[in-house]
Specification:
By secondary structure, the chain is α+β, with helices and mostly antiparallel strands. The chain is 15% helix and 29% strand. The strands form 8 sheets. Strands 8, 9, 10, 15, 16, 18, 19 and 24 form an 8-stranded mixed β-sheet that branches. Strands 6-4-3-2-7 form a 5-stranded antiparallel β-sheet. Strand 2 and strand 3 form a beta hairpin.
Length: 393
């Protein structure tokens, strides 16, 4: 059996301390689970001789729970440090990628106080930017799981009802197409109906994280969202990275939560409240336009999952919940173009061109890094997409 030792550069952020999971197909082959190591994908079914990883999604592995996740991760960290069978190694640029999980339910939150405050000032000028409930619970809504697509999938500009100057609606393509740079959390082990997940127990249920772009049609949203919230403005496309970074890879990225005032109700308080020190970068047509910091998020992933299940709602392996737009206190740290452009009133420069919202043909790529062990950094798999012209109805 021919073996190879994969050598990584000193600055490679997909080394043994990362090892994100994805689902890939080699040329002419079937989809199966792989782990990214440097610029290669390792076939886990072949490497570990385990049929669990020969399936076209990660759900069966996720359902096996945290002890199994830990065992596999430790085995992989040992294996990648030595020679590997050449037959299990596939160059990243030679494979096809798909969504790594079969998503049963998708929930999107609104967990950034800086984003919620800026958006509230646009929506309620002269009024309180935050609604009375915002500091008491993680606000969220149920999204459309069937509209979650893998990174690289084109996004067709949505059509919908837009409010006109007369106050009556027209049916037209969105003119204010936007992004939302988010962090998604993938559920591993599920829960039983009627059994809430406690804040301190989320480690047994959250498998890992993936970058998310929850595309948003702001003009459709402005007309339709009263009184029930987002609908067509969000359900046309949500893009998820092809790679899920295990939560275990982010131990060095844990940071204290920002001060929460008033103190949350007891079911939202834990013994070890934590956020994540993850730095995002948003690239518009290849130009970096913003640097959202996840560490400034008000509500933690543990609080979001605890709130999601406190009424007895169950979660299943592969379910996805996302943070909502990640924004920091500075305008340059905004995770949406509505914020960056001051609600469209202050165009920003993108490659020498003044821009507010997305035009047909535009592309957006979101990347992120986080602290790893011993002062190194790891990278999350990027999420990207480009905009296509609206289809005729």
């Amino acid at each position: 059996m021919r073996t190879l030792r994969l050598e990584l550069g000193n600055d490679d952020r997909f080394g043994p301390d990362n090892l994100p999971y994805g689902v890939f197909a080699p040329a002419g082959g079937e989809f199966r689970t792989g782990v990214r190591f440097g610029s290669a994908v390792l076939d886990l079914a072949a490497l570990l001789d385990d049929s669990t990883f020969a399936q076209p999604d990660l759900n069966a592995f996720l359902a096996q729970g945290p002890v199994r996740w830990h065992t596999v991760r430790q085995r992989l960290r040992d294996l990648v440090r030595g020679p590997l069978p050449a037959s299990v190694i596939h160059p990243l640029d030679s494979v096809s990628l798909r969504l790594p999980v079969a998503i049963g339910d998708y929930v999107d939150f609104y967990a950034s106080i800086d984003h919620a405050t800026r958006l509230g000032r646009f929506l309620r000028p002269g009024g309180a930017p935050l609604l009375p409930n915002w500091r008491h619970l993680p606000v969220g809504y149920h999204g459309r799981a069937g509209s979650v697509v893998v990174s690289g999938t084109p996004v067709i500009r949505p059509r919908g009802q837009l409010r006109t100057d007369s106050g009556a609606p027209e049916f037209a393509p969105s003119r204010r197409l936007d992004i939302e740079a988010e962090l998604g959390f993938v559920v591993g082990a599920g829960s039983e109906p009627g059994t809430p997940i406690a804040v301190d127990d989320v480690g047994a249920h959250i498998f890992g994280v993936a970058l998310v772009n929850d595309w948003s049609a702001r003009d459709i949203q402005a007309w339709e969202s009263q009184p029930l919230g987002p609908f067509l403005a969000k359900s046309f496309a949500t893009t998820m990275s092809a790679w899920i970074t295990p939560l275990a890879a982010l131990e060095s990225a844990r940071v204290p939560l920002p001060d929460q005032s008033p103190e949350p109700l007891p079911y939202l308080r834990g013994r070890r409240d934590w956020g994540l020190d993850i730095d995002l970068r948003v690239h518009w047509n290849g130009h970096e336009v913003s640097t959202p910091p996840y560490r400034s998020m008000y509500w933690s992933p543990a609080q979001m999952l605890a709130h999601l299940t406190v009424n007895g709602a169950a979660v299943r392996p592969g379910d996805l919940f996302a943070s909502g737009t990640i924004s920091g206190p500075e305008r340059r740290q905004s995770g949406s173009f509505i914020e960056l452009s001051g609600n469209g009133s202050e165009p920003i420069e993108v490659g020498g061109e003044a821009r507010t919202f997305l035009a047909d043909g535009d592309s957006v790529t979101i990347t992120a890094t986080a602290p790893g062990p011993a002062g190194a950094r790891i990278a999350l798999g990027e999420v990207s997409g480009h905009v296509l012209t609206a289809r005729r109805c």
